[in-house]
Amino acid sequence: MTIIEARGLKKIYKAKTGAVHALDGLDLAIPSGTVKALLGPNGAGKTTAVKVLTTLIRPDAGTARIDGIDVVADPKAVRRIIGVAGQYAAVDENLTGFENLEMVGRLYHLGAKAARRRARELIEQFELTEAGNRPVKGFSGGMRRRIDLAGALVINPKILFLDEPTTGLDPRSRLALWGVIKNLVAEGTTLLLTTQYLEEADQLSDDIAVIDGGKVIAEGTADELKARIGGHRVEVTLVDAGDAARTADVLSRHGDGEASVSGDRRTVGVAVVDGPRALQFVLRELGDAGVELHDAGMRRPTLDDVFLKLTGHRAEEGQEDQQTEMENAR
Amino acid sequence: MSGPAGYRPAGTGGPFRQFLSDGWVATWRNLLKIKRVPEILVFTILQPIMFVLLFSQVYGGAMAVDNYTQFLMAGIFAQTVIFGSTFSGAAMAQDLKDGIIDRFRTLPMSPAAVLIGRTNGDLAINSISMLIMMGTGWAVGWRVTTSFWGFAGGVAVLLLFSYAFSWVMALLGMSVRSPEVINNAAFMILFPLTFISNAFVPIHTMPDVLRVIAEWNPVSALVESARQLFGNTYSEFPAAAAWTLQHPFATIFLGVAAMLVVFVPLCIRKFESISSR
């Protein structure tokens, strides 16, 4: 059963440089109990999509339904069943961690007693005891994020939206948060998550929608997407960067297309049809030519490769502040 | 579908009870803020003391008329509570900046409740300010010459006006989106607004243009109302002949009603369409 459904969503912002199509006909269909990642660079429209689905902004065209409820026609009914954690920790700085969660519980109308009980549970579950009784003001970004995420889980919602949940977190906090999210999903929550980290989408989601320019440009499981750009890659790491040109020649001859050379001219790689065979030939020829290697191997394509192939640009080189500018221009 | 294990459906109580509960929770949050941000309390306590003392002691001597302190006090009360209303503007802008508005807007709460909680917060701050000012005023010789009901009525009129004004500032805060800009703008607008009035000097001494502005300035009607209720009117400081000052109560109630009727719906509409960043 489809629990999150979007059809032809459009949202246009007027910016100094002209109209920006933040959403340009976005379609989504997410089955109940699954995890969908919206993957795309900054400014691709991920946050705008989440804001429309969570009733924060109205689309200019198209429809969106959450558990069958239209987000524009009955936002309050939608808000009763969803949990949301945005890109920035939306916590009250002057309240303690506990008070923040109690407030959210009371605003979900759980009743004062149940709200407090739930806040205590979450404080424990998220190991926030330290932040429980002090104003949030003095805490690190990671701690705020956890309080914010706990806030999204107060009603243990059927449907959870997480907008770039780990952006700006250190690797340790990121791993910890992944653990929390995986547990949740195991309990049957439907999750829509946005990320610009390919690894994150791969780790957490059942299904990925690649977004660029406000619409979905590819959809499928991580494996399906990887399969779309073909088989393996052969990659070698050079001892001497001076060998890059001849190595690239060798790889291009055995590969499916031109070899690519990394910025420091030490890593050379190429997409190949038959991985093991290509690797054997490449290694033999490089050995004969006396090229010294630090490392050589065959790897499956990453989502990074997928993204590059689909959009013509890398996921990370997004237009950093476009989103912010767009929002401010309203 | 039933949802994940441990799913807690939201929503106990009827719509009206939920609305009251939301309003209280939002108010509670703003009261905690007063307690936890020392700057607010310092502003709330020290500034009124400073204004009462500065004006009554520095100006009072130069005025060389009897009863200046009596005359002045309602003016200082009015100015202080109007400045107190700017907290709502700065706080709404700050909440937008912090993203907490987005959290509220994804919860099944009443949108009006956030604003009611905020304006109630101002009311609390202004009530504290009033207490402090009245105490300080008492110490420098201010007296209410009517009755307890006159006194209570004067306080009520001042707080009512400032409460309505909080809604104006809240809309400004949500539109401007920058707490710093709100504070500066408030200063630029509110200083002339409170000075070009009968708050500190009688209007009849002003040049014509200023006099007309002062007569129609709602702050003048507010101050005149409070003076009449406190029994602080004197022949040395006659109220102007303009309709607004001859009927200060009607003017103030019309003004308060107009502010609420216009700005409460505008604020709610604005709130329902804003989102952080």
Describe what you observe in this structure.
The complex is a heterodimer of chains A (330) and B (277). By secondary structure, chain A is α/β, with parallel strands linked by helices. Chain A has two domains: 2-227, P-loop containing nucleotide triphosphate hydrolases (Rossmann fold, 3-Layer(aba) Sandwich); 231-300, Alpha-Beta Plaits (2-Layer Sandwich), CATH 3.30.70. Chain A contains 13 helices and 14 strands. Chain A has helices at residues 46-53, 75-81, 97-107, 112-125, 129-132, 141-152, 171-186, 198-204, 222-228, 244-254, 275-288, 303-311, 322-329; strands at 2-15, 18-31, 35-39, 61-66, 69-70, 82-85, 159-163, 190-195, 207-212, 215-220, 233-238, 260-261, 267-271, 293-299. In chain A, strands 6-7-8-3-9-10 form a six-stranded mixed beta sheet, sandwiched between helices. In chain A, strands 2-1-4-5 form a four-stranded antiparallel beta sheet, covered by helices on one side. In chain A, helix 3 (97-107) crosses helix 4 (112-125), helix 3 runs parallel beside helix 6 (141-152) and helix 10 (244-254) packs antiparallel against helix 11. The radius of gyration of chain A is 23 Å and the shape is elongated. Residues 317-330 of chain A have low confidence and may be disordered. Chain B has one domain. Chain B has helices at residues 15-36, 38-63, 68-84, 86-98, 100-105, 111-139, 148-176, 179-195, 208-216, 218-230, 243-246, 248-271. Chain B is elongated and about 75 Å long. The mean pLDDT of chain B is 90. The chains are: A alpha/beta (330), B mainly alpha (277). Chains A and B meet through helix 2, helix 3 and helix 13 of A and helix 1 and helix 5 of B.
